[in-house]
């Protein structure tokens, strides 16, 4: 179990891609160890600057969500099927084994990425604009796109705990791993938008 870890986009560690086509800012990779590929789940924000292939990740489910930019066309080179990632906050799920080629539909694209290792982990990403009750016993990531949101750790009586609240603005977020805390995400303004990745052990 972990307490929430807060982050800001500008303070995330940056890694340039080996092919020079972009960069990744890692939010979290669990468990944390010396082998970067031996993750159970991983969350990051990627900047796509040039077209080219995605790296493949065997036995991995991926979810990509556009944060800003004109978006990208994602094409399977083995089947020719395409998906246009053009709507901010709309997630797209795909298998990490798929050979995906990307084509920019304009300028640079900024994307939110969640990866979970099969068969042990699963994830769902949703765009939130109203009160969200975060699931106890799960892991997760929240990232704010618009407006202000209050994250509350909630007691059994349903009220926020003392010193258990924090207000998050655009480009801020938090993550946690297998927390047994009850928590909520409360919009503070009109036209709020946040991404919530609910990450949990697969059934069975």
UniProtKB/TrEMBL annotation:
Pfam families per the UniProt record, alphabetical: HutD
Top-level taxonomic group: Bacteria
PANTHER family assigned to the protein according to its UniProt record, in alphabetical order: PROTEIN VES
Protein name: HutD family protein
